[in-house]
Design goal:
This protein is mainly alpha-helical. The chain contains 4 helices and no strands. It is elongated, with a radius of gyration of 14 Å. The protein starts with 7 loop residues before the first helix and ends in a 9-residue tail after the last helix.
Length: 68
């Protein structure tokens, strides 16, 4: 569906950050700030699972190794 443009270590890092940000509304008070943190967490989780970053795509960045 999407062309992958992230390497494996970057995907793992995004997943770890997402795991920390998604429960923000439960750990903190449910404020617009904590909801925004959770939203960023869900975006990072999508990026980690799909391997595609739309910002990278717009800028023409690709951190995946090219096949030899």
């Amino acid at each position: 569906m999407f062309e992958k443009n992230q390497n494996k270590s970057e995907r793992v890092l995004r997943a770890l950050i997402a795991v920390l940000l998604i429960p923000a509304p439960f750990a903190l008070e449910s404020t617009p700030y904590s909801m925004a943190l959770a939203g960023v967490g869900f975006i990072l989780l999508f990026n980690a699972i799909s391997g595609t970053c739309m910002t990278y795509k717009m800028l023409g960045v690709n951190t995946c190794k090219l096949p030899d």
